[in-house]
Amino acid sequence: MDVARPHAALVPSLDGDVLSVLARTTRPLTGREVARLTGRRAHSGVLGVLRRLDEQGLVDRQEAGRALLYTLNRDHLAAPAVEVLAGMRAELYRRVTRAIEEWSVPAAQVSVFGSTARGDGDAASDIDLLIVRHQEVSAEDEAWRAQIDVLATRIRRWAGNQASIVEVGESELSELAQTERPILRDLRKDAITLVGPALDALLGAPA
User: Fold this and answer.
1) HSE-up of 78 (CA within 13 Å, CB side)?
2) What residues contact 203, with CB distance under 8 A and at least 6 apart?
3) What is the pLDDT of residue 28?
4) Same domain, 47 and 140
5) Same domain, 26 and 68
6) How far apart are CA 10 and CA 178, in angstroms?
7) Same domain, 129 and 33
8) Separation between Cα atoms, residue 97 and residue 129, nearest integer Å
9) Where are the alpha helices (DSSP H) in 24-87?
């Protein structure tokens, strides 16, 4: 999965970028706004896509003065498929969360960080996870280790990306919070909590 453009797994063209933008909002957008949100400087290609999608009925077009505004037609038969593609990263988060909540040895906290959390990177990017063990759980606990191995395999199956898992105990996390290691800066800046308390609460104020 391209972590910046998950929809590219099935729609790698500009059409996929445009549809993904429209699926993430109900607010009418101008062609220039759609182009900006897709990361395109020139909007002529985006306008061509919007015209074609309007002809197919998948996009609604309305006049607002001299401007044309576009929205995804959510009544269209193809709209649910578009929304699924646009929500692939969020669906990955949900699957990881559900899997971890079913663990026989609970985790104290789990966050996704790095390129997946930021929404950049590409199909070769790892899915970066921080998993925090409860203090009473040994790092060598067989059940604990098996859970992590199974999760890594499932992430590979779900997304096609390797899972890069940083695993620490609660005390190790406290020690990490007092350092200036690059991973700490990434966690403070990008981390999205999936399970447990917010990571900021565990890390405390920067040293």
Assistant:
1) 11
2) 173, 176, 177, 184, 187, 188
3) 97
4) no
5) yes
6) 44
7) no
8) 11
9) 31-38, 44-56, 79-86
- With beta carbons less than 8 A apart as the criterion, state whether 202 and 110 touch: no
Q: What pLDDT score was predicted for residue 206?
A: 62
pLDDT of residue 202: 86
Q: Could you give the CA distance from residue 203 to residue 188 in angstroms, rounded to a whole number? A: 8
Mean pLDDT, residues 60-79: 95
- Quote the percentage of the chain above a pLDDT of 90: 77
Closest CA to 46 of 59, 62, 57: 59
CB burial class (10 A; 0-12, 13-18, 19+) of residue 155? Answer: buried
Work out the average pLDDT over 178-196. 89
- The reported pLDDT for the residue numbered 46 is 95
Q: Where are the alpha helices (DSSP H) in 11-165?
A: 14-23, 31-38, 44-56, 79-86, 88-101, 115-118, 142-159
Q: Cα-Cα-Cα-Cα dihedral of 173, 178, 183, 189, to 10°?
A: 100
Residue 184 and residue 187: Cα distance in Å, rounded? 5
Do 50 and 98 lie in one domain? The reply is no
